[in-house]
Amino acid sequence: GAVVSQHPSRVICKSGTSVKIECRSLDFQATTMFWYRQFPKKSLMLMATSNEGSKATYEQGVEKDKFLINHASLTLSTLTVTSAHPEDSSFYICSARDSTTLSNQPQHFGDGTRLSIL
Amino acid sequence: AQTVTQSQPEMSVQEAETVTLSCTYDTSENNYYLFWYKQPPSRQMILVIRQEAYKQQNATENRFSVNFQKAAKSFSLKISDSQLGDTAMYFCAFIPPQGGSEKLVFGKGTKLTVNP
Predict the structure, then answer these.
(1) A102 within 8 A of A36, measured Cβ to Cβ
(2) Could you say which of A17, A51, A64, A105 would form a disulfide bridge with A13 (CB–CB 3.0 to 4.6 Å)?
(3) How much is the pLDDT for B98?
(4) Are B104 and A107 within 8 A, CB to CB?
(5) At A87, is the secondary structure helix, strand, or coil?
Protein backbone atom coordinates (compact mmCIF):
# COMPACT_ATOMS: atom_id res chain seq x y z
CA GLY A 1 0.00 0.00 0.00
CA ALA A 2 0.87 3.67 -0.16
CA VAL A 3 3.64 4.66 2.21
CA VAL A 4 4.95 8.03 3.24
CA SER A 5 8.43 8.17 4.68
CA GLN A 6 9.42 11.02 6.94
CA HIS A 7 12.98 11.66 8.04
CA PRO A 8 14.45 12.20 10.55
CA SER A 9 12.18 10.76 13.22
CA ARG A 10 13.94 12.61 15.98
CA VAL A 11 16.27 15.57 16.06
CA ILE A 12 17.82 17.51 18.88
CA CYS A 13 19.78 20.63 18.11
CA LYS A 14 20.95 23.91 19.51
CA SER A 15 19.04 27.14 19.29
CA GLY A 16 19.80 29.05 16.10
CA THR A 17 20.29 25.94 13.99
CA SER A 18 18.26 25.28 10.86
CA VAL A 19 16.67 21.86 10.61
CA LYS A 20 15.41 20.14 7.46
CA ILE A 21 12.69 17.49 7.54
CA GLU A 22 11.98 15.34 4.51
CA CYS A 23 8.70 13.79 3.44
CA ARG A 24 8.73 11.22 0.68
CA SER A 25 5.96 9.32 -1.01
CA LEU A 26 7.52 5.92 -1.65
CA ASP A 27 5.21 4.30 -4.16
CA PHE A 28 3.00 7.04 -5.51
CA GLN A 29 3.20 10.55 -6.88
CA ALA A 30 1.93 13.44 -4.81
CA THR A 31 1.45 16.86 -6.35
CA THR A 32 0.29 18.06 -2.97
CA MET A 33 1.68 17.31 0.47
CA PHE A 34 0.70 18.75 3.82
CA TRP A 35 2.72 19.75 6.84
CA TYR A 36 1.24 19.64 10.33
CA ARG A 37 2.42 20.56 13.74
CA GLN A 38 1.16 18.77 16.83
CA PHE A 39 1.61 19.95 20.39
CA PRO A 40 1.45 17.41 23.23
CA LYS A 41 -2.03 15.97 23.71
CA LYS A 42 -3.39 18.27 21.02
CA SER A 43 -4.76 17.84 17.55
CA LEU A 44 -2.88 18.32 14.31
CA MET A 45 -2.56 21.91 13.18
CA LEU A 46 -2.13 22.40 9.46
CA MET A 47 0.85 24.62 8.80
CA ALA A 48 1.02 24.67 5.03
CA THR A 49 0.15 22.94 1.80
CA SER A 50 3.15 22.00 -0.28
CA ASN A 51 2.60 22.20 -4.03
CA GLU A 52 4.93 20.50 -6.47
CA GLY A 53 6.66 23.00 -8.68
CA SER A 54 5.14 26.07 -7.06
CA LYS A 55 5.05 28.01 -3.84
CA ALA A 56 3.59 26.52 -0.72
CA THR A 57 0.34 27.85 0.68
CA TYR A 58 0.68 28.77 4.33
CA GLU A 59 -2.07 28.84 6.90
CA GLN A 60 -2.82 32.03 8.73
CA GLY A 61 -0.32 32.76 11.47
CA VAL A 62 2.43 30.51 10.10
CA GLU A 63 5.61 32.38 9.26
CA LYS A 64 6.76 31.67 5.72
CA ASP A 65 10.32 32.73 6.38
CA LYS A 66 10.49 30.60 9.47
CA PHE A 67 9.14 27.42 7.93
CA LEU A 68 10.52 27.05 4.43
CA ILE A 69 8.86 24.47 2.24
CA ASN A 70 10.23 23.06 -0.97
CA HIS A 71 8.39 20.55 -3.15
CA ALA A 72 10.83 20.00 -5.97
CA SER A 73 9.58 16.65 -7.20
CA LEU A 74 6.43 14.58 -7.22
CA THR A 75 7.72 12.41 -4.39
CA LEU A 76 9.56 14.77 -2.08
CA SER A 77 8.67 17.76 0.05
CA THR A 78 10.97 19.32 2.62
CA LEU A 79 10.26 21.54 5.58
CA THR A 80 13.13 23.62 6.91
CA VAL A 81 12.77 25.23 10.29
CA THR A 82 15.14 28.17 10.05
CA SER A 83 17.03 29.56 13.03
CA ALA A 84 15.11 27.27 15.33
CA HIS A 85 14.34 28.32 18.88
CA PRO A 86 12.98 26.34 21.83
CA GLU A 87 9.42 27.43 21.05
CA ASP A 88 9.72 25.61 17.72
CA SER A 89 10.09 22.33 19.57
CA SER A 90 7.19 20.16 18.55
CA PHE A 91 6.05 17.12 16.64
CA TYR A 92 5.87 17.72 12.89
CA ILE A 93 3.93 15.38 10.60
CA CYS A 94 3.57 15.34 6.84
CA SER A 95 0.89 13.73 4.72
CA ALA A 96 0.35 13.07 1.06
CA ARG A 97 -2.27 11.63 -1.24
CA ASP A 98 -1.82 9.74 -4.46
CA SER A 99 -2.46 12.37 -7.12
CA THR A 100 -3.70 9.79 -9.60
CA THR A 101 -6.60 8.64 -7.43
CA LEU A 102 -9.98 10.16 -6.72
CA SER A 103 -10.16 12.86 -4.10
CA ASN A 104 -12.09 10.61 -1.74
CA GLN A 105 -8.99 8.50 -1.18
CA PRO A 106 -7.34 9.23 2.15
CA GLN A 107 -4.15 11.02 2.88
CA HIS A 108 -1.26 8.92 4.10
CA PHE A 109 0.81 10.20 6.96
CA GLY A 110 4.49 10.01 7.70
CA ASP A 111 5.60 8.78 11.11
CA GLY A 112 6.40 12.29 12.26
CA THR A 113 9.50 14.12 13.43
CA ARG A 114 10.04 15.07 17.02
CA LEU A 115 12.04 18.28 17.06
CA SER A 116 13.70 19.44 20.26
CA ILE A 117 15.56 22.72 20.35
CA LEU A 118 17.87 23.24 23.29
CA ALA B 1 -15.87 28.30 9.15
CA GLN B 2 -15.84 24.56 8.73
CA THR B 3 -15.27 22.79 12.01
CA VAL B 4 -15.15 19.36 13.56
CA THR B 5 -16.15 18.82 17.18
CA GLN B 6 -15.28 15.86 19.34
CA SER B 7 -17.02 16.41 22.64
CA GLN B 8 -15.35 13.58 24.55
CA PRO B 9 -11.74 14.42 25.45
CA GLU B 10 -11.24 11.04 27.11
CA MET B 11 -13.05 7.73 27.24
CA SER B 12 -12.35 4.30 28.60
CA VAL B 13 -13.78 0.88 27.91
CA GLN B 14 -13.25 -2.63 29.13
CA GLU B 15 -11.61 -5.10 26.82
CA ALA B 16 -14.14 -6.93 24.60
CA GLU B 17 -16.82 -4.31 25.16
CA THR B 18 -18.18 -1.76 22.70
CA VAL B 19 -17.53 1.95 22.75
CA THR B 20 -18.80 4.83 20.64
CA LEU B 21 -16.87 8.01 19.97
CA SER B 22 -18.85 11.03 18.91
CA CYS B 23 -18.09 13.57 16.22
CA THR B 24 -20.08 16.42 14.77
CA TYR B 25 -19.07 18.79 12.04
CA ASP B 26 -20.26 21.96 10.45
CA THR B 27 -20.31 22.60 6.74
CA SER B 28 -22.56 24.09 4.13
CA GLU B 29 -21.28 21.68 1.50
CA ASN B 30 -23.45 18.85 0.28
CA ASN B 31 -20.68 16.48 -0.67
CA TYR B 32 -17.55 15.84 1.35
CA TYR B 33 -15.54 13.04 2.86
CA LEU B 34 -15.29 11.97 6.47
CA PHE B 35 -12.53 10.03 8.19
CA TRP B 36 -11.54 8.58 11.51
CA TYR B 37 -7.82 8.41 12.20
CA LYS B 38 -6.14 6.61 15.07
CA GLN B 39 -2.91 7.84 16.67
CA PRO B 40 -1.38 5.29 19.09
CA PRO B 41 1.43 6.22 21.47
CA SER B 42 3.87 5.71 18.61
CA ARG B 43 2.23 8.84 17.13
CA GLN B 44 1.75 7.36 13.70
CA MET B 45 -1.52 8.46 12.11
CA ILE B 46 -3.49 5.44 10.94
CA LEU B 47 -6.67 5.58 8.88
CA VAL B 48 -9.44 3.65 10.60
CA ILE B 49 -12.44 4.24 8.36
CA ARG B 50 -13.82 6.67 5.80
CA GLN B 51 -17.22 7.70 4.51
CA GLU B 52 -18.40 9.63 1.48
CA ALA B 53 -21.23 12.00 2.34
CA TYR B 54 -23.26 11.02 -0.70
CA LYS B 55 -23.41 7.41 0.45
CA GLN B 56 -26.26 6.62 2.80
CA GLN B 57 -24.86 3.28 3.85
CA ASN B 58 -22.68 3.42 6.92
CA ALA B 59 -19.09 2.35 6.38
CA THR B 60 -17.72 -0.66 8.24
CA GLU B 61 -14.21 -2.06 8.61
CA ASN B 62 -14.11 -5.23 10.66
CA ARG B 63 -14.71 -4.16 14.28
CA PHE B 64 -15.08 -0.51 13.34
CA SER B 65 -18.26 1.03 12.04
CA VAL B 66 -19.72 4.48 11.76
CA ASN B 67 -23.14 5.98 12.33
CA PHE B 68 -23.36 8.71 9.74
CA GLN B 69 -26.29 11.06 10.17
CA LYS B 70 -25.96 13.64 7.42
CA ALA B 71 -28.88 15.81 8.44
CA ALA B 72 -27.56 16.01 11.98
CA LYS B 73 -23.96 16.36 10.72
CA SER B 74 -22.92 13.57 12.98
CA PHE B 75 -20.28 10.91 12.32
CA SER B 76 -19.74 8.65 15.32
CA LEU B 77 -17.32 5.73 15.46
CA LYS B 78 -18.27 2.44 17.07
CA ILE B 79 -15.57 0.04 18.12
CA SER B 80 -16.83 -3.47 18.87
CA ASP B 81 -14.98 -6.12 20.85
CA SER B 82 -12.44 -3.55 22.02
CA GLN B 83 -8.85 -4.70 22.18
CA LEU B 84 -5.91 -3.39 24.17
CA GLY B 85 -4.30 -2.30 20.91
CA ASP B 86 -7.19 0.06 20.31
CA THR B 87 -5.83 2.34 23.01
CA ALA B 88 -5.00 5.55 21.17
CA MET B 89 -6.07 9.07 20.31
CA TYR B 90 -8.86 9.07 17.77
CA PHE B 91 -9.34 12.01 15.45
CA CYS B 92 -12.41 12.70 13.39
CA ALA B 93 -11.67 14.61 10.19
CA PHE B 94 -13.32 15.73 7.01
CA ILE B 95 -12.38 17.20 3.69
CA PRO B 96 -14.59 20.00 2.52
CA PRO B 97 -14.19 20.12 -1.26
CA GLN B 98 -13.48 23.83 -1.60
CA GLY B 99 -12.31 24.34 -5.13
CA GLY B 100 -10.43 21.09 -5.13
CA SER B 101 -8.69 21.67 -1.80
CA GLU B 102 -7.71 18.52 -0.01
CA LYS B 103 -7.19 20.05 3.38
CA LEU B 104 -8.23 17.82 6.22
CA VAL B 105 -10.09 19.52 9.05
CA PHE B 106 -9.44 17.68 12.31
CA GLY B 107 -11.32 17.52 15.57
CA LYS B 108 -9.43 17.88 18.82
CA GLY B 109 -9.38 14.16 19.40
CA THR B 110 -10.65 11.64 21.93
CA LYS B 111 -8.21 9.70 24.03
CA LEU B 112 -9.48 6.12 24.29
CA THR B 113 -8.13 3.73 26.87
CA VAL B 114 -9.01 0.05 26.70
CA ASN B 115 -8.68 -1.56 30.10
CA PRO B 116 -7.86 -5.24 30.58
Answers:
(1) no
(2) A17
(3) 60
(4) yes
(5) helix
Give the whole-number percent of chain B exceeding pLDDT 70.
Answer: 95
pLDDT per position as a tens digit, B48-95: 999 999 888 999 999 999 999 999 999 999 999 999 999 999 999 988
Neighbour tally for A14: CB within 10 Å? 8
> For residue B86, what is the DSSP state?
G
> Between A and B, how many residue pairs show a Cβ–Cβ distance under 8 A?
51
Residue numbers of chain A with a pLDDT score lower than 50: none
For residues B110 and B21, is the Cβ–Cβ distance under 8 A? yes
Residues belonging to chain A: 118
Taking only the tens place, the pLDDT of each residue in A8-26 is 999 999 999 999 999 999 9
Cβ within 8 Å, pair B97-A103: yes
Angle at A41 between CA B7 and CA B93, to 5 degrees: 50
Say if B90 is an interface residue toward chain A (CB within 8 Å).
no
In degrees, rounded to 5, the angle at the alpha carbon of residue A115 between the alpha carbons of residues A109 and B3 is 50
Does A34 touch chain B if contact means CB atoms closer than 8 Å?
yes
CB of B101 closer than 8 Å to CB of B15: no
Q: Mean pLDDT over residues B9-35, rounded?
A: 94
A60 touches chain B (CB under 8 A): no
